[in-house]
Amino acid sequence: MTELAKPRPEFRNINAFKDLPTYRLPAPGWVSILHRVSGVLMFVLMPLIIWMFDTSVSSEISFARFRNAFNAGAGGVILKLVALALIWAYLHHFIAGVRHVWMDVSHKAVSKGWGTSSAVFTLAASLLLTVVLGAKLFGLY
């Protein structure tokens, strides 16, 4: 008695130009990638963060110079956009980090449903808080 062999799965190399644009990454995948991106962004912009902190707390004159840098025409807008990117990076990295710690601590949090819902919450919360703080940064309230 011979049994028919099951067909083996076919593995192939992907074509980056054809396959990647049609691939839909799930929300936890986006959070994971953006967690890494936000960490790299904060690391790369660390000299700017240190300069902003040092300038803002050194003296009243340096604080006035710091405020003028943020209000100086197109250069100020660019500096505000960089600061907004840092705000997003910090918020996303912090919220995603808390999510990862919670997944490590709680055994209930290791499910596909919880992973998706917590990833959507992470994305929404970091973007919403960034919009609120960005509105404050640009003087809308």
Distinctive features:
3 helical TM bundles of succinate and fumarate reductases, 141 residues, 6 helices, single chain, mainly alpha, elongated
Topology:
Layout: H1 16-19, H2 27-44, H3 46-58, H4 60-71, H5 73-105, H6 112-137
Helix pairs in contact: 2-5, 2-6, 3-4, 4-5, 5-6
**Biggest β-sheet: count, sense, barrel?**
none
- What is the CATH class? Mainly Alpha
Count the strands? 0
Helical proportion, percent range? over 70%
Can you say what the CATH homologous superfamily is? Fumarate reductase/succinate dehydrogenase, transmembrane subunit
The name of the CATH topology is 3 helical TM bundles of succinate and fumarate reductases
Strand content: under 5%
- For the terminal residues, how far apart are their CA atoms? 80 Å
CATH architecture type: Up-down Bundle
What value does the average pLDDT take?
89
Q: Which structural class is indicated by helix and strand composition?
A: mainly alpha
Q: What characteristic shape results from the CA principal axes?
A: elongated
- Whole-number count of domains: 1
Specify Rg, calculated over alpha carbons.
22 Å
Number of helices: 6
Q: What is the H-and-E element order?
A: HHHHHH
Return residue spans where pLDDT drops below 50 for at least 5 consecutive residues.
none
